[in-house]
Amino acid sequence: MNLQKRIFFISFLILLIVMFAILFPKNLAWISSIAQKAPLTDSSPVTEVQNREIIVDNTRETPSGEKDTRESSRYGNYINKKKKLGFTPTTELCNRILFQIKYDFVDEVSPRQIFRGVKDEIKELFRESGISENVDRLPETKDIFSKVSSEYSDRIDKRLLLFACINGMIRGLDDRYTAFLTPDQYKGFIKRTHEEKYSGIGVRISKKNKNTPLVILEVFDYSPAKKAGLKRGDTIMKINNAAVKGITLARAARLITGKENTSVKITIKRNKKILKFKVLRKKITVGAIHHRILKGGIGYIKIDSFKEELNDEFRKVYSRMEDKGIKSLIIDLRNNPGGLVLSARELCGCFLPRNSVISVFMHRGKEKRKIRSVGRRIVFIPVAVLINSHSASSAEITAAALKDHDMATIIGETTKGKGSVQRTTPLPDNCALKLTIEKIFSPDGYSINKMGVKPDIEEKMDIKKLGSPEDTQLKKAAEFLRGKVKKK
After folding, report:
1. Class of the 197-285 domain?
2. Long-range Cβ contacts of 225-228 (<8 Å, 24+ apart)
């Protein structure tokens, strides 16, 4: 084919795609899903759609080990027709998700592993439906989708059968951060991702998995929760008189949030006592940082989350502290669930020479890209960084970068180990697939994913003491910095 014919062919193809987009706008999600497969570049804000814990009541849906995000009954309400799916699963949708997993998932996964997950999920659906059936004979290939929908649709709604197939593929990956989002979930995901304000009570909660206690990690200043008397470390027992045992973190967060000026009842356990609170929901805006100057000229900056405005806020605050003559600095990343990787790049730029590597992103054992610091370095004094088991995502990237470049001493406990990137791809019927596509490594090549960032100086502490006079981690950091300044 000569050059003139190639140009004609490409022009014709582009014209067809444009006409298709105009005539069939609902199918634009398909085009979008293909476009999103392009490699993410350093200039991309690797994004909260990709790399932020979901913001729910600023509880931050900290994925601290929720491998099984199912509630006690995944299908019960659908079987009893109390709840509608809100979309129509098809074998085509199943095959598209299978295709994306095959080529885009962070690790290579055998088909057998995926289809074993499908079989296990179908067993779960049968169990909840009261059906006794041996599914082991089903094929461990993509033929399982059509086989299931044709053989069992006389006893179970075909849509539920295919929904179970989709959930089963996700289950087979055994990845706590990969998820299929129904239309309602996807709508909520987009809203939580892009909104800075929400109507809630002003707490951040944590739950390692559905069988562990639901604990309040943080109560925000001037929030309804603070006013009502809730405290860090309280264990939530009930929300609106419903027991929270066995429910997921996301479900708990949805129960706490709601319309502004409505109330939510919270029952907690504190020092063996059961206490009840009625808290009014209000619009909550969470600032990025809090700061003060400690005895001995030690600047203290607590970073709550990695938001877009963090870099500007940090530089302004540090400049004011510098004018007051601080000699050293504590950066507190404890209970920080992460946020925008772009913000981590900018924050690291305050401490590191421009263009320093702050993290390496890997896909199936191969390096995909490096994230480098941006901006002018402004901090040239001794620095200590506080971390704990609830420091995650961008907080871990920052701590690891400053540690590997010897720009800070890390104090506290090993971080959460949320060292992976998720990409959310729109699917037909307003659904989406949130898929883990990369793992994050420190500049020196240490894996953050599942391993976390280990402190240089370990200091374990009950989270209830965080910010109190008994905050031994903060005391340890201050003591360390005073000693370092004296040596100078």
Report:
1. mainly beta
2. 225/201, 225/279, 226/202, 228/201, 228/266, 228/277, 228/278, 228/279
Condensed to tens digits (0 to 9), the pLDDT of residues 34-81 reads 333 333 322 222 222 233 332 222 233 333 233 333 444 678 888 887
Distance CA(37)–CA(170), nearest Å, equals 19
Q: With 0-12 CB in 10 A as exposed, 13-18 as middle and 19+ as buried, what is 243?
A: exposed
The domain spans of the chain are 29-54+61-177, 197-285, 289-420+438-487
- The answer to whether the CB of 169 falls within 8 A of the CB of 98 is yes
Q: Residue 10's pLDDT is what? A: 59
In 373-429, where do the E strands start and end? Answer: 383-387, 409-412, 420-427
The model's pTM is 0.73
CATH code linked to domain 289-420+438-487: 3.90.226.10
Residue with tokens 């022009």: 11
Which is higher by pLDDT, 6 or 207? 207
Helix (H) or strand (E) segment spanning residue 179: strand 179-181
pLDDT of res. 134: 83
Q: What is the pLDDT of residue 167?
A: 96
Structure tokens at 212: 């562990």
**Is 380 a residue whose pLDDT tops 80?**
yes
pLDDT tens per residue across span 192-243: 666 555 689 999 888 876 677 899 988 888 899 999 999 989 999 999 988 9
Listed in order, strand segments (DSSP E) in 210-322 are 214-219, 235-239, 242-243, 263-270, 273-280, 282-285, 289-294, 298-303
C-alpha distances (whole Å) from 24 to each of 18, 21, 27, 35 are: 10, 5, 6, 17
Catalogue the E-assigned strands of 304-441. Answer: 328-332, 357-363, 366-372, 383-387, 409-412, 420-427, 431-441
Question: Which amino acid type is present at position 164?
Answer: A
Residue 164 has a pLDDT of 95
DSSP code at position 36: T
Tokens (6 digits) for 481: 């910095």
Helices (H) and strands (E) in the chain, counts: 15, 19
What three-state secondary structure class fits 328? strand
Helical H segments across 130-154, by residue range: 143-151
Q: How far is CA 157 from CA 75, 90, 371, 486, in A?
A: 11, 12, 47, 73
